[in-house]
Amino acid sequence: MIEILSVSRVAHGDLADLLHVGCVVAINGVEETLERHAYRESDPYGLGPVIKEWLADHPDVTVHPFIPKVPTQGELRAHMPALSARQFRLGLVAGGFMPSQVTQMIDAMPDGQQKETAKIEWEYATTFNRMHPLISVVREALGLTDEQIDTMWAAALDL
Fold first, then answer.
1. 37 lies in which domain range?
2. Rounded to whole angstroms, how far apart are CA atoms 87 and 98?
3. Buried (b) or exposed (e) across 9-26, using 16+ Cβ within 10 A?
4. Of 112, 46, 97, 140, residue with least CA distance to 21
């Protein structure tokens, strides 16, 4: 048996017939908090009929508008396509930097695991992901901002 104990929020979803319902329910006597349950009026299973009945019994409930989540810069960067080693190096050259500058920067690092890892990544990686730690090291060493790297990255995709 499913029972709705309380509803904290009802909001439209990103699809026309979708609602997101924040609620506390009891399922066979066990209480569970659902932060954002996806509900469709046409759903005949699980919580669907129970939520439908609750909404019918509470016609004055405020249904909040859908507000799309705006991705952060970090989330956008994490979804940037990977570059091949060729694209990455050509992108550096197109941006006015020489791959030898990166090699020199890595050679100047203090001896240890971080230096050896950076050297292996730089010399042998076949692809580079925007959020890889080596990219931050290169960015700092070349005195670039994240936005400048983003611009160079996007341009290198076409190389």
1. 2-64
2. 13
3. ebbeeeeeeebbbebebe
4. 46
Residue 112: half-sphere exposure toward Cβ, Cα within 13 Å: 3
Q: pLDDT tens for residues 37-47?
A: 999 988 998 89
Q: List, in sequence order, every beta strand (DSSP E) within 28-143.
A: 30-40, 63-64, 83-84, 127-128
- Here the tokens at position 86 are 């060729």
| Model confidence, pTM | 0.63
The mean per-residue pLDDT over the stretch 116-123 comes to: 94
Last residue of a domain, one of 46, 64, 82: 64
As given in the structure block, the two tokens for residue 67 are 């507000």
Asked if residue 86 and residue 52 are part of one domain, the reply reads no
Query: Angle at CA 50, nearest 5°, toward 56 and 58?
Result: 25
